[in-house]
Design brief:
By secondary structure, the chain is an alpha+beta fold. The protein is built from 31 helices and 31 strands. Strand 21 (about 970-980) and strand 22 (about 980-985) form a beta hairpin. The chain starts with about 25 loop residues before the first helix and ends with a strand. The mean pLDDT is about 85. The protein binds adenosine-5'-diphosphate (ADP) and magnesium ion.
Length: about 1100
């Protein structure tokens, strides 16, 4: 909920002077002092802000403060300049009302600061954006430039504005700044040539000399030494807390931001330098022959340098300082100037140069900051003008300034009253006439066109003849003598005729803010503000663009014989424009007050403040404001603020706010004449009533506060208690849980221990029992075993005993039976029993033998020689017979597996065995050799094709043999072929048939008993084949050959059996001779081979190695 605050909250003194009760000057000052002492430098009079200069920085201008006051109602927060700025800005933006902010006050009261605060506040709260920020920056940066050229240190203010300034800030419909226009009023140009004691010339001179670089100074022909320049007072050239050098840089920077070109800046500085140089030009008198005094320039160096700076011709300027040309009716009269006139001319030039430069600067700045868009603007004017001035010595300037303030006061009264009146009408309240002092009459005294003081001064200045300040005063005395606000020593109805405080050359005006005594000296001159035409023409001739612009009247083409308007006239005109400008706007007032003359903080000089309050007409202000109703407030905030004072409106009022307020007022029994109901506001006539309401509210608030406090405390205690209670429960529950857990754990632990002990005990018991049981069982088993053993052994013994007995019985019985039988059958037994028993026994033995043999038979292989041993010797024959039979049987079995071929082979082998076994020593080695028959594969060999075709029968044997030559016993190889009918011998190499012997011609075959392969084929005597003689051959397959020969011959039925003779000596019939072939055992020296040697004609000896 937004908290509604009010100005009336936490008020120190009263924030609004309208509420001051009682309203006297003392209470007014006391209120200001009280607030000032509490750092409340701002106080309201209605919507007017009084500002006291704190002379120190207060923390009330922070961005936070800006936010605090932004968009808040004027009376919502404690008085502040921001509240006024915010009010003005919002009414400009939201209600489309042009505003002006009028800041008045004495020099050093804080006007310029106030204007800057207003501008910075508006800059902070208005729109943002690149363009807008640039405009803001330019507007704000115009200040340092103007301050450098227009401000100076005075005794009252180290940074006193020596010109009046009015600045229009222009906004668009959104409230964004577009630009601005600055108007300046009456620069105090006399300061350029002369400064009062303890004061300085304008800041820029000092800034330039301290801050510019050596280079710049050289260009400007200046030296960094204030004492070198006559126009610069030396007594306070440096001001503490003012850094001229730094400020110079700030100014240059500001000029750049505002948009000054580099050459423009240079020109400006040249002019400033020129003014300084001008001050150094000095004159000396020179007597002329006509007795007149003429002036001459003392040292022309400065003049020369100045002319160089401005680009003027030295002679022209020199002449302008010596002569004055007066033109009248086509006539030109030149008069010489005396020294005093020359100095006057010099100073006039310096003042004009400077003031015109200042005006040019303002115009130039305006050129930069003026709004670009042509659309309608909303305008906020800020007027920072010199305040009312009352010095000991008041001259033309003060007169002018005070006139301006008089006008401002008037417009203030007018506008305030008008606003007041408008509000009454708006609210439908009856308008009662208000008594107040209207200063229009004083304004009239000064500005009246016929007999106003300014009009008379102008008249005096234009009048031909001798015109002096005294003549002007005389004129005033005659014309204004009757005016009630004008006093002079000579005025007829002066009440102070005898008052010597009023000197002769003075007049006094009773301004709205007090009486001011003016010294007439210098009025005429200052009003005339004369610059000799020769000088302005000399300036115009200068070869310097800026100078030319500043002195347009020096243009000879535009010679104007009319006098230029007087200063007074000009000022009146500009004040007139300013006033009419201000009248179109909604005014906002800031009244600045200086609390002391020492520029010191915390000092409140009552008399000084009282003086200012008086001439600012602050009491007047309060009175005007309070004339009808002192206080007004809209119904809603009013009801909101005071609703607690009545039961009907507290805490909420349902109906319209106005009715609520009415109920409230009747309930509080406020007298009816004390207030009025407007359309949207209640008007309270007397501050007393308001304070009565406030007091009541305060009490009520205290009660309410107590109530709230009570309820809050109760609530707090209760919630605290509840919290404690809740916490206690939680803590307790947690503790209980914890305790129970602990207890449970303890019990559990104990249980476990007890349990374990019990279990242990039980287990041990059980173990003991089991062990015992086991022991018992073991014992039982052992006992049983022993018992059974005993039993068994006993039984065994018994059985053995029984068996023995039985056996014994049986034996005995058998013996007995046998004895009996033998006794009985003795007579029969001898004849048959022995035989029978024998047979039986034999039978049993045989049976046992056969059964045993059956199980011990050797393998079925015919060559297996094993045979079980003979058990009884009487079975010797049977055993051998059985062996033979078994062998035969297994041979038969073996044979029965044979094929026909194999059978033939074995038959052959068998036959070989029959023929040679134990007869020839060669035989055993042939047993293992299979009879292959055809060793040569004649039919397949193409070499023997012819041979095989010659032998048409099937070849049963084909081998190579050696045919032994009878002559030497050496062998030659021959093919030996055997068929069913023939034996064929052929050449081994060629296969050529050598002999074909039919088997029928073969008588016998002889061979030795030894291991050799020699054999002889003996032919039948008388057969066809026998012609060639027998064949003595040797072969590796002798056994096979002879066996086959024998077989074939034995199978043929028609032939007789071939004889095989196995002898170691036989005869062989070689053709005619018979040769004996003798086989001998060869000695070892003959080696292992068989050798055959012819011994003689009839003997061939074959030595055969002994078979090993
Ligand atoms: N609101 C303020 N807070 C702090 N210092 C202030 C304030 N107003 C004025 N001053 C001080 O007073 C001096 C004079 O103020 P200034 O505005 O120049 O006076 P004026 O323009 O009325 O002659 C300033 O230089 C500043 O030091
Ligand atoms: Mg100022």
């Amino acid at each position: 909920m937004e908290v509604k605050t009010s100005l009336l909250d936490n008020m120190i003194g009263v924030g609004d002077m309208v509420l001051l009760e009682p309203l006297t000057e003392d209470s007014f000052l006391e209120n200001l002092k009280k607030r000032f002492d509490h750092n409340e430098i701002y106080t309201y009079i209605g919507s007017v802000v009084i500002s006291l200069n704190p002379y120190r920085s207060l923390p009330i201008y922070t961005p936070d403060k800006v936010e605090e006051y932004r968009n808040r109602n004027f009376y919502e927060l404690s008085p502040h300049i921001y509240a006024l700025a915010d009010e003005a800005y919002r009414s400009l933006r939201d209600q489309d009302k042009d505003q002006c902010i009028l800041i008045t006050g004495e020099s050093g009261a804080g006007k310029t600061e106030a204007s800057k605060l207003v501008m910075s506040y508006v800059a902070a709260v208005c729109g943002k954006g690149q363009e807008v920020n640039k405009v803001k920056e330019q507007l704000l940066q115009s200040n340092p430039v103007l301050e450098a050229f227009g401000n100076a240190k005075t005794v009252r203010n180290d940074n006193s504005s020596r010109f009046g300034k009015y600045m229009d800030i222009e906004f668009d419909f959104k409230g964004d700044p577009l630009g601005g226009v600055i108007s300046n009023y009456l620069l105090e140009k006399s300061r350029v040539v002369k400064q009062p004691r303890g004061e300085r010339n304008f800041h820029i001179f000092y800034q330039l000399l301290s801050g510019a670089s050596d280079d710049t100074l050289k260009k400007l022909k200046l030296e960094r030494d204030f004492s070198k320049y006559n126009y610069l007072s030396l007594d306070s050239a440096t001001v503490s807390g003012l850094d001229d050098a730094a400020n110079f840089r700030t100014v240059r920077n500001a000029m750049q931001i505002v948009g000054f070109m580099e050459d423009e800046m240079q020109s400006v500085l040249e002019l400033v330098a020129a003014v300084l140089k001008l001050g150094n030009i000095e004159f000396k008198p020179e007597s002329r022959c006509n007795g007149m005094d003429e002036s001459r320039i003392k040292d022309k160096n400065d003049l020369k340098e100045m002319c160089e700076l401005l680009g003027t011709e030295q002679s022209v300027l020199e002449r302008a300082f010596s002569y004055r040309t007066v033109e009248a009716k086509m006539e030109k009269v030149s008069t010489t100037l005396n020294v005093a006139q020359a100095y006057y001319a010099r100073d006039a030039l310096a003042k004009n140069l400077y003031s015109r430069l200042f005006s040019w600067l303002v115009t130039r700045i305006n050129g930069s900051i003026k709004a670009q868009a042509k659309t309608r603007h909303k305008v906020m004017g800020v007027l920072d003008i010199y305040g009312f001035e009352i010095f000991e010595d008041n001259s033309f300037e003060q007169f002018i300034i005070n006139y301006c303030n008089e006008k401002l006061q008037q417009i203030f009264i007018e506008l305030t009253l008008r606003e007041e009146q408008e509000e009454y009408i708006r609210e439908g309240i009856e308008w009662t006439n208000i008594e107040y002092f209207n200063n229009a009459v004083i304004c009239d005294l000064i500005e009246n066109n016929q007999n106003g003081i300014l009009a008379m001064l102008d008249e005096e200045c234009l009048r031909p003849g001798t015109v002096t300040d005294e003549t002007f005063l005389d004129k005033l005395n005659t014309i204004c003598a009757d005016h009630q606000h004008f006093e002079s020593r000579l005025s007829k109805n002066s009440k102070f005729l005898n008052d010597h405080s009023l000197p002769h050359n003075c007049f006094r005006i009773q301004h709205y803010a007090g009486k001011v005594l003016y010294r007439v000296e210098g009025f005429v001159d200052k009003n005339n503000d004369l610059l000799y035409r020769d000088l302005s023409q000399a300036m115009y001739k200068a070869n310097h663009s800026l100078i030319k612009q500043l002195f347009p009247e020096g243009n000879p083409v535009k010679v104007n014989l009319k006098r230029p308007p007087t200063a007074g006239f000009q000022f009146k005109a500009s004040v007139g424009t300013l006033m009419s400008n201000l009248q179109t706007k909604n005014p906002n007032y800031i009244r600045c007050i200086k609390p002391n003359d020492k520029k010191a903080s915390h000092i409140f000089n009552e008399s000084l403040v009282c003086h200012q309050a008086r001439y600012l007409g602050l009491m007047e202000n309060v009175r005007v404001r309070r004339a009808g109703y002192a206080f007004r407030q809209a119904y809603e905030p009013c009801l909101e603020r005071y609703k607690m004072l009545c039961k009907n409106t507290w805490p909420h009022w349902k109906g319209p706010a106005r009715q609520g307020v009415e109920v409230l007022m009747t309930n509080l029994q406020v007298p009816a004449e004390e207030y009025s109901y407007g359309r949207s506001k209640i008007f309270i006539r007397n501050p007393r009533t308001l304070f009565f309401l406030e007091e009541k509210r305060k009490q009520c608030l205290e009660d309410l506060a107590t109530l709230i406090q009570k309820i809050y405390r109760g609530w707090k205690c209760r919630s605290h208690f509840l919290l404690l209670k809740k916490s206690q429960i939680v803590v307790a529950s947690w503790y209980r849980r914890y305790a129970q857990q602990k207890k449970y754990q303890k019990i559990k632990h104990s249980t476990t221990v007890v349990q374990s002990y019990t279990r242990g005990w039980q287990a041990r018991k059980l173990l003991r029992e089991l062990k015992y049981q086991k022991k018992c069982e073991e014992a039982v088993t052992t006992i049983a075993a022993f018992w059974h053993g005993t039993q068994a052994r006993r039984e065994l013994r018994r059985l053995k005993e029984e068996a023995r007995r039985k056996h014994a019985v049986a034996v005995i019985w058998a013996y007995w039976q046998g004895l009996k039988v033998r006794r009985e059958y003795r007579k029969f037994f001898r004849a048959n029993a022995g035989k029978k028993i024998y047979n039986f026994t034999i039978q049993r033995i045989m049976q046992k033998y056969f059964l045993g043999l059956k199980s011990k038979l050797p393998s079925m292989s015919p060559i297996d020689k094993t045979w079980p041993a003979r058990p009884y010797s009487f079975l010797d024959g049977v055993h051998a017979e059985l062996r033979r039979i078994f062998h035969l049987w297994r041979c038969k079995k073996y044979r029965s597996q044979f094929t026909e071929e194999k059978k033939a082979v074995y038959e052959e082998k068998l036959e070989a065995s029959e023929l040679f076994k134990d007869k020839k020593a060669l035989y055993p080695s042939s047993v293992r050799q299979p009879f292959k028959g055809d060793y040569l594969e004649i039919s397949k060999n193409p070499k023997y094709q012819k041979l095989s075709s010659a032998v048409d029968e099937k070849i049963l044997l084909a081998d190579v043999v050696n045919k032994i030559n009878r002559a030497n016993g050496k062998g030659s190889p021959r093919l030996f072929l055997l068929t069913k009918k023939n034996v064929v011998l052929a050449d081994q190499k060629t296969g050529q048939l050598k002999a074909n012997v039919p088997l029928t011609d073969l008588a016998s075959v002889s061979t030795s008993t030894q291991t050799d392969g020699f054999f002889a084929l003996k032919l039948k005597e008388g057969s066809a084949s026998a012609i060639k003689g027998d064949f003595l051959l040797s072969s590796d397959h002798l056994i096979e050959m002879i066996t086959k020969l024998h077989r074939i011959s034995s199978m043929a039925a028609d032939r007789e059996k071939l004889n095989i003779d196995i002898l170691d000596e036989f005869l062989v019939q070689f053709k005619q001779d018979k040769v004996c072939v003798k086989f001998i055992q060869g000695s070892p020296k003959n080696g292992n081979s068989v050798s055959c040697k012819r011994k003689n004609n009839r003997l061939l000896e074959v030595s055969v190695p002994a078979s090993s």
